[in-house]
Amino acid sequence: MTATINRRSARRVSKVDRFLTLIRVFLVGLIVVGILAFLAQQFAPDNPFTRWRNPDAMGLSADQFKGLLMSGLSQGAMYGLIALGYSMVYGVLGFINFAHGEVFMAGAMTGFIASEKFNASGLWESNFLLCLVLIVLMAIGISTLMAVLMERVAYRPLRNSPRLIPLITSIGVSFFIQNAVMGLFGPATKSYPQLPEWLAKQRSILTFEIAGTKILVLVVAAVSMAGLWFLVERTKTGKAMRAVAEDKEIASLMGINVNRIIVTTFAVGGAMAGVAGILWGLLFRSVTHMTGFLPGIKAFTAAVVGGIGNLGGAMAGGIALGSAESIAPLVILEPLGVPGVSQLKDAVAFTVLVLVLLFKPTGLFGERLSSEDRA
Amino acid sequence: MSATMSAPSSTSSTSPAASSAPALFDLDWRRIGKWGGLCAFAIALISLIGMPVGLDRRTIIEGRLSLGYLALIWLPLLFGYVVSKRVVLEGVDTPDPGARDVLAGLCTGLLAGLGPLLLILGIDNFNLRKPLVNWSPQLLELLTFGRDIGYGIGAWLAICAVLGMLGSTMHVLPKDVRRVVSIVTFGLLFISVLEAAIDDLSEGFGLEGLTDAMYAKRGGLTVKYSIILVVVLGVLAVVTKGRVKGATNHYRGLKGAERKRASVLLFAGVAVLCIVLPMFLGKIMNELLANVGLFLLLALGLNIVVGLAGILDLGYVAFFAVGGYTTAVLTSAESPFFAPELHFGFALIVVVLIAGLTGLVIGAPVIRMRGDYLAIVTLGFGEIIRLLFMSDWLKPYFGGAQGITNVPHVDLGFAVVKGTDPRSVFYMILVFCVLAIYVSWRLQGSRLGRAWMAIREDEQVAEAMGINTVNTKLMAFVVGAMMAALSGAILAAKVGSVFPNSFMILVSIIILVVVIVGGMGNILGVMVGSFVLIGVLGGPRQPGLLQEFQSYKLLIYGALLVFMMLQRPEGLVPSARRSQELHQEEFLQDVWLKGEDHEEEEAAEEAAAEEEAEATAEGTGDPA
Predict the structure, then answer these.
(1) Residue B234: Cβ within 10 Å count
(2) Hey, is the C-beta of B513 within 8 angstroms of any chain A C-beta?
């Protein structure tokens, strides 16, 4: 702690600092002006402030806004589930498992293959809930297996190397899995079978019009999160995990099998990603070999937003990122007169990452890392 | 200490028969199971990914061996080799290789044969075509060699067992024989794989007769010439024994003026080769060389950022895009918003300036982040820039998804560089590459270069030594950005248009693989990396010599990256300093094990070993 204070006071304000301040001011200004323009447009679409940037502004209706929020929340819950894997691995090993997105993709792919088989046999229509439980279990199994294998083959031999080496390796792993899946199952986009009517139809809850699938996603995410919380905070394994995250050497001196705990961490992260994969399949009903790439990076963003190593933070970060990604283009960019804002959804997500790292690099809820990883 | 430790090992090696003969079947079954199972899995995976069927059309040896089968049979050979490979540890008793190892290889091969066996039985009895696209009758036919199931199974078990045995036999052979065998095998492989290049070259020199006889009409070496080549290569291998190493050692041993003269001669030789060779090559080969040069330029830039300064920049493609788009906007008449139609030469100056500025703007916010955060954030920037170029928002300026077309040819007064004439493009790229190599080389030894390396090794210590780490790292970003932008500018002029989809994140990752496989922080390594990877496998959109690999090359890039990081993180042609950094623990351990009193000798020996390793790496790298 003292070291950081000393360094900060010793550093003179350099040109880079001034430039960074400029960027911060600019970004905040942009967001504030965007929101103001949005508000102006909401209250009176015909005022000069709105017309200045966006002559044909129409404003959002309350229903539209709620719809955006709900799709942002459900997508965010999914990001949160994937983010847990990033966060846990970073907390324990101190490196970004870039291939975690591929674990998620494997879950979605497993779900597709299984659900198609179920659909062909008619079970999908006659007993959807059983199928859902089965495909979730299968996805969890495959994703967990994949994450554990990954750790065993690619990351364990590199445990003590410089921190960028496992990151580069994981990029290779990610690339390999993507293309292997493409080779195995073909490059075409695969569609999940039709969902039953009772699940897919719109429901109205507390004035929110929301599709049943989105409710399902939110519920499953909440249940998984609760399960994970129980595992980490209330069981012996969880305690060991926290100990290993704090300090590997001392944990091993306390009789904890560090290797086993690391494998468990990967397994739990993989299981969460598997669940997220199924949710993705239900929500968007399509999966390709590239499905894991962008959600993976965004989930990492979510983990950073919430504070890496912090599990509650990862979930909250996911939800925050999902909502921001869904709302910001229409609330900040559109009122500023940017056309085709839906194309910039991904750019918004990355901008959120840059914003968080510029303003609060430790994330919204603070990071939890061992002392050596904090450097 | 060392004397007592070496005593038991010497006794055991003097009587290998006594110690190993009764234990012929006392093999390390776990190890065999592990590698054999892995091999079986790998064979099944490669088959199901579709490589054998996809590559079957390309023949290696006429009527005998196709690339499709080659994609499978190298595995038991390699795993047989690996299973009998032993790490010789200081002070640990290691028995000499013998019959046991060959037996281990045989068992591994047999186990590996389970892969095709299960696959044949599976495809014959079940239909999994639905999820697995390559679960096809074609694969079955290929695996059974077009005959019945029993024949296929028997043949694969036999092939795998023999190959596994051959692989492990390599350890038993004397060193010289091993050398000859590997030179013949790899030489034959090279000559058949590089068929297109050799054909093209011989046509340029008017030697079609030779290649027409050597290669069959539908590709692949003829059987007669394969045998002749084996003999020729074998004789060559025997004749050149020790010569190559001797020559490089002689060169390294030269001092002062003599060494300078030798270097100038060497350089002149390479220069003449680079200038003369393209004149004898056809369009396709020149195009290939131009692509290699384009990626070499990119890789040299990334080498400065990743290799020297140790900053993992995954969004490097952003600068490539900026270079391409700036050139297009400045020179093309079709540029939608601002079309000054400058000459390429003037545009280049602006490109370099704008790229430097972009480097500063992107670099400044990220430079203080943790290394891994920086990697992801730059990746984000790389994607943002592509999304912006593609968006409707900036469409009035950059043309959206349609990009900017009609980038004019480069008129140099005495010659015109245009995409339809790849030779001219190659010469232009050559000029820029030479420039970039010179700049990289000068920077490496400069104050700035040494500061980069210091930061790479330990940022805190570097800061304590009075290096302004932020500015120095920014400089690396800027220099790297400029090189990438130059490459982008050439790409725009070569293709005649720019599209946002030429600048996917994929490009960054492929360049990263090139730098890492070649050898981070080593210019020669980066050159070897670009030649081997881009030349043979091809770039993200550009085909390489092995055009058949088009759909599998990304898979191979991924696997290569993992393999290199696990086995040889310093790359094919390592930079001495970098490999010492990466193997620091091993170095220290060796020193500790061998006793502290020998430390000085140790250091000298290590330096010699290091140099030798580099020499051999260069020796193997050159013909590629």
Answers:
(1) 15
(2) yes
H-only helix segments in B15-113: 16-20, 29-49, 51-55, 67-83, 99-112
Cβ within 8 Å, pair A178-B381: no
Rounded Cα–Cα distance for residues A37 and A33 (Å):
6
* Residue B264 neighbours by CB distance under 10 Å: 10
Q: pLDDT tens digits for B88-138? A: 666 666 667 778 888 888 888 989 988 889 988 988 888 888 888 888 888
Same domain for B182 and B86: no
Do residue A171 and residue B569 have CB atoms under 8 angstroms apart?
A: no
Which of A162, A175, A354 minimises the CB distance to B561? A175
Q: What is the predicted ipTM?
A: 0.89
**Which residues of A are less than 8 Å from B473 in CB distance?**
none
pLDDT at residue B13 above 60? no
pLDDT at B621 over 50: no
Residue B189 forms part of a structural domain: yes
Residue B599 forms part of a structural domain: no
At the top level of CATH, which class does the domain A60-374 belong to?
Answer: mainly alpha
pLDDT, position B449:
92
* Cβ separation B558–A178 shorter than 8 A: yes
- Residue B590 counted as domain residue: no
Is B622 a residue whose pLDDT tops 50?
A: no
Task: Tell me: do B207 and B87 sit in the same domain.
Answer: no
Do the chains contact at A172 and B560, CB–CB below 8 Å? yes
Cα A104 to Cα A99, A100, A138, B64, B293, distances in angstroms: 9, 7, 13, 43, 37
- Total domain count for chain B? 3
Domain co-membership, B387 together with B471: yes
Residues of B within 8 A of A168 (CB-CB) are 312, 512, 516, 561, 565
For B154-189, the DSSP string reads HHHHHHHHHHHHHHHHHHHS-HHHHHHHHHHHHHHH
Last residue of a domain, one of B172, B205, B223: B172
Residue B232 shares a structural domain with residue B131: no
Instruction: Based on the fold, state whether residues B142 and B204 are members of the same structural domain.
Output: no
Cα separation, B73 vs B85, whole angstroms: 19
List beta partners, residue B411.
Answer: B416
Tell which of B149, B172, B195 closes a domain. B172
Same domain, B469 and B513: yes
Distance CA(B620)–CA(A328), nearest Å, equals: 55
- Domain range for B297 is 281-524
CB B82 within 8 A of CB B32: no
Same domain, B55 and B156: yes
- Who's near A167: CB < 8 A, 6+ residues apart? A95, A96, A98, B312, B372, B375
* B 448-507 residues with CB < 8 A to A: 470-471, 474
CB B98 within 8 A of CB B172: yes
The tally of CA atoms less than 13 A away on the side-chain side of residue A6 is 3
Two structure tokens written together for B199: 């054909």
Would you mind telling me the total number of residues written for chain B in this entry?
624
Residue B128 in contact with partner chain A when CB distance is under 8 A: no
Joined tokens for residue B296 = 């070499």
Closest-CA distance, B492 to chain A, in angstroms, reads 25
The residues near B149 (Cβ < 8 Å, ≥ 6 apart) are: B120, B121, B124
- Residue B27: name the closest of B107, B85, B82 by CA: B107
Sites in chain A below the pLDDT cut of 70: 1-13, 45-46, 49-59, 370-375
Cβ density class A129-148: b for 16+ within 10 Å, e for less: eebbebbbebbbebbbebbb
Q: Are residues B289 and B342 in the same domain?
A: yes
Nearest-CA residue of chain A relative to B393?
Answer: A339
Looking at the complex, does the CB of residue B369 fall below 8 Å from at least one CB of chain A? yes
Select from B393, B552, B565 the Cβ nearest to the Cβ of A165. Answer: B565
Residue B255 lies in a domain: no
